[in-house]
């Protein structure tokens, strides 16, 4: 493992992640990726530690990824699925978490449909002065940091497999397309991509990308100035603002909003698509999946606007023929989707390792 | 591990537990508590053995506690949850148990909503002459021995951490408050507390504590004489009968029934509260949770009747503000609730160890 | 482990199994049966490998058997139960399988209510050129090879515990009784029994055993000639055709169809009963369970038609008093049911070992 300074007890959000922290995760994940290519894919690092997957909102995919990561580190795992659980009857979520704490859990991986639950549990653990780590596995429409970190790892290892690091994305144009308003994946990705110096172009129908959305990222901890943000007029489509030369007094805009797909795709290096919840239609935020696909679905034709080597990401599961055309999804020349899943195990091993190895 | 004589193949009830058996469990749990404080919390004791958690009635909390205990002993675990199972279609519960037997299960941890199921399975295993152990993890309104043993361990280690043993409770006054009639936890606790020589004061509304309740404990195996029992008149509240000097010809009363809370709390050393099932209200056994809390809920004010160092227990999950006031539950000066959960893992390790280590 | 040549990447069907392959499974299972009789029942063979139980159709019994087999080989296991899963929302089953592939799964154990799903997944894995193995744990009304192999192992070890092999069944008369039309267990068993040279007598009501059924086995890969098949007239019951001397030009009939129970039982060495799905009645394929039991249920009296040492098998769970009378099911003189469950773990260890040990 790379020697690093890692002082974080919890991974709840990427809003305050430092470049050093991103690089530590990327490099640690790279060494685990190497472990995963060996015949024996298991290391004894977390032997005797207990990783509890507390999934108040069910997600087989993410839970399996964390479970396999924990097992490859030789940790013992406990699975809690709210759907089939008799817990939480009358007690609060903090009570449930404290029960798992008292049983000797070392790391809690938490998913909840309400934003802020992992933060609240982490705050309570800190208040109690215990060494338990909390890892946010997706909370409401807030964040999903391990997903954004695996996206980052997937892209960076594509660019430089031997030495993935944040600065590799500097100046890259990355489009994020889809239901941005409701997406915790988008929020976490925006933090990491802005931190990397990439140009982040958001594209969605206005109902899924309100103009005010961007303010969230200027009001947050780092107090970014509004100049980070540029908004593309909806019609006619404009090319993205060409970045002004960087200077300390006037930062380059990094976050661009588009209500049409084309300006976001124009010359893009990477296209991140987001899962569309079908519930959005019943809420009248979308006319139809068919129309959505016509306007914002990624197809081979639309990709011709991008850089020649453009790659497409999706956090999965994909609604085939909605966010991405079915043939494109299966085309390894363009799709990084399988690679993201594989990266997920390495990145989650890295996070569990970084959180768990300090528990001596 | 302490050297002990332990000849029990199953743990089904505490009704016939001997003092030596209680002490063996307490001392074995104490040594596992020590293991749990080490950096590597795992021992290879049950490597290769299979512990099947057969939870015909779901309970995430108890199942997780047994699962973590089994994993810390290096056993392999199988989880069976009736809710999501396709088994038991057409076959009997004994057939299901025999299937797990035939697969090579060494210890079956069984929860069922009907009293007597673990006993029936254990009897069948004995009839077949196999070395499988059955551990009752709660059967109907009958018993929940591992819960009572962890309560006992929690109290005894508080009194003497280095040497927890049954006699530490001799003469202590312990109140059990709540839905005693329907509680398997209360029944198991009454057996262990009477065996310890403690004074056990039950307090509940008459609908949840019929006068006949106490007869159960005089008719059971040890054939206790009726003199063990004293009944406090409902109104006006009377102080608990002061124990007469112990003599071999006339045993001191040990079990006291109260239909008001105050006489049970008066000078109590420990207060065990029980979970109130909200179904009791729909069955008209209770007027309202609010009134229940007013009359039988434990609050800071009511605790002033007890000994100054009184501690409160609850098997969890707590209905906050019903059985216990919310602030009291979180006050480490009074609440042993977290400590009970931690004790649970050590005590269940002890039970699995004692049952499993004879399987050579 | 016996030294063998095993070149199969997947176990999907027994239709094309060779005698050498059957014998390899039987001998490997026999060595694991020996491991299971040791004090430490675990071997490190598959350490670091991941076995994913992808049960799109739930089956606690079969899943537990595979899980315990995998754990005894020291593999890590992942359980996926469609019923409680949020996966497969919008994605195809192949997408789900590819996700588990990308996470690093080595062996996928798949059950699905549709015939052909494991084959489709295996074909996709082969197309991708990956070394993942697929094991069919029951697909629709197609096949359930591990069940038929454990039935075979149970019978062969009964005849020659030290050296179970396919040829032991040559010339034996084996009756398969029950809902043959809808049974994947029957189909897999028919392949292995025909391969062994046994005489296979099917008995069921005409609604559960159409005359055309047998054609399936003549049209399949080995292109058996119609002469393999003999059909017994429904009334009056005829004795089974006595096998003609074997010759290369005219093979002995091996598959016999009966619409009454008696000719199938006459002089049978083994009776395989099948689980009756109660849904068959609502589909008017059966008049009543009572009548079914009267006509096709196996009882002590009816067994008198068989060879004196006849044994009865059932894949479980049994509908007591329907397929088999309750007392017969529990009589170890006749019933092999418990033995089948135990064999199941050894046979599944053998299959996982044979598939997994080539993954160096």
Automatic annotation (TrEMBL), chains A, B, C:
Its EC number is 2.1.3.2. It is an enzyme of class 2 (transferase). Residues 234-243 have a biased composition (Pro residues). Pathway: Pyrimidine metabolism; UMP biosynthesis via de novo pathway; (S)-dihydroorotate from bicarbonate: step 2/3. Residues 170-355 form the Aspartate/ornithine carbamoyltransferase Asp/Orn-binding domain. Pfam families: OTCace (PF00185), OTCace_N (PF02729). L-aspartate binds at residues 89, 184, 275. GO terms for biological process: 'de novo' pyrimidine nucleobase biosynthetic process; 'de novo' UMP biosynthetic process; amino acid metabolic process. One of its GO terms (cellular component) is cytosol. InterPro entries: Asp/Orn_carbamoyltranf_P-bd, Asp/Orn_carbamoylTrfase, Asp/Orn_carbamoylTrfase_sf, Asp_carbamoyltransf, Asp_carbamoyltransf_Asp/Orn-bd. Belongs to the aspartate/ornithine carbamoyltransferase superfamily. ATCase family. Catalyzes the condensation of carbamoyl phosphate and aspartate to form carbamoyl aspartate and inorganic phosphate, the committed step in the de novo pyrimidine nucleotide biosynthesis pathway. This is Aspartate carbamoyltransferase. The gene is pyrB.
């Amino acid at each position: 493992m790379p020697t690093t300074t890692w002082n974080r007890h919890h991974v709840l959000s990427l809003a305050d992640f430092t470049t050093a922290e991103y690089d530590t995760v990327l490099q640690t994940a790279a060494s685990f990726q190497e472990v995963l290519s060996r015949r024996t894919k298991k290391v004894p690092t977390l032997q005797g530690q207990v990783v509890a997957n507390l999934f108040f909102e069910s997600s087989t995919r993410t839970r399996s990824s964390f479970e396999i990561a924990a097992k490859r580190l030789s940790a013992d795992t406990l699975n809690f699925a709210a759907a089939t659980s008799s817990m939480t009857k009358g007690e609060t979520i903090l009570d449930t978490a404290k029960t798992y704490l008292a049983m000797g859990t070392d790391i809690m991986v938490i998913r909840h449909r309400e934003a802020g639950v992992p933060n609240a549990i982490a705050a309570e653990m800190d208040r109690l002065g215990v060494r338990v780590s909390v890892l946010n596995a997706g909370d409401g429409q807030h964040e999903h940091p391990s997903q954004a970190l695996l996206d980052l790892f997937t892209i960076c290892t594509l660019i430089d497999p031997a030495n993935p690091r944040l600065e590799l994305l500097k100046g890259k144009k990355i489009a994020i397309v889809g239901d941005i308003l409701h997406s915790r994946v988008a929020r976490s990705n925006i933090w990491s991509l802005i931190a990397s110096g990439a140009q982040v172009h958001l594209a969605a129908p206005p109902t899924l990308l309100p103009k005010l959305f961007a303010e969230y990222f200027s009001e947050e901890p780092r107090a970014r100035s509004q100049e980070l943000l540029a908004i593309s007029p909806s019609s006619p489509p404009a090319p993205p603002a060409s970045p002004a030369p960087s200077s300390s007094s006037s930062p380059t805009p990094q976050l661009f909003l588009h209500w049409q797909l084309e300006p976001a795709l124009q010359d893009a290096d990477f296209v991140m698509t987001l899962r569309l919840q079908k519930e959005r239609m019943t809420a009248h935020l979308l006319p139809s999946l068919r129309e959505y696909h016509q306007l914002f679905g990624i197809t081979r034709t639309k990709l011709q606007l991008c850089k020649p080597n453009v790659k497409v990401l999706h956090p999965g599961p994909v609604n085939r023929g909605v966010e991405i055309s079915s043939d494109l999804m299966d085309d390894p020349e363009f799709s990084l989707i399988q690679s993201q899943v594989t990266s997920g195990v390495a990145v989650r091993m890295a996070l569990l390792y970084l959180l768990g190895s300090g528990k001596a």
